[in-house]
Amino acid sequence: MKKSIFFFLFFLLSISIFGCATRMVSISSPYFTKIENEYYYLSITPLSANERHCGFRLILKNKTTKTMILDWNKTYYIHNNERKGSFVFDGVDYENRNNSKRPEKIRAWDIFIKTIWPTVLASGERNQWTQMPMEPGRQGVEVTIVLDGKIFTEKLNVQMSILEK
Fold first, then answer.
1. How many C-beta neighbours within 10 Å does residue 46 have?
2. What sign results for the dihedral spanned by CA atoms 24, 128, 97, 111?
3. Fewer CB atoms inside 10 A, N or C side of the chain?
């Protein structure tokens, strides 16, 4: 009796650890990417849902004494060096995802952090939308920043790969 209970517990533990089927997970190389100069620090980090990357955490630090603008209408999702649309984020209804968005003002010395999702990978309706995972390849963000009348355009990319787990 003890042997059968031990075998049954071992069997349940094995299934819970190893599972019955493989699943796909995505990895990025590098883990995050950044650009820094005397005016700003800018970085993106891929974000996962169900072990697949589907969005980014964007960080922009203003290193000046002036207010800078992040122009969402000239900020793009990049896949394999091609623009594939814009982004959705908190406060954007699904049905308005392709409409123009208000620029973000980042005051002197402030740090701006936002979770952004590629519009082309969003599906749903009204306030309820889900995000499809990113495919393998170069994924990134082309960001447009305006500071004191000067326009800065920066591209940040990571390499996405899919692994069976």
1. 22
2. negative
3. N
Give the integer Cα–Cα distance in Å for 86 and 99: 10
Say if CB 122 and CB 54 are below 8 A apart. no
User: What are 23's two structure tokens?
Assistant: 């699943």
Token pair recorded at residue 43: 């970085």
Using CA atoms, how far residue 10 sits from 2, 4, 16, 115, 165, in Å, is 12, 10, 10, 42, 21
pLDDT in tens, the chain (165 residues): 544 444 444 444 444 444 444 566 778 889 999 999 999 999 999 988 777 788 999 999 999 999 999 999 999 999 999 999 999 888 777 777 788 899 999 999 999 999 999 999 888 776 677 888 888 999 999 999 999 999 999 999 999 888 876
pTM of the model: 0.81
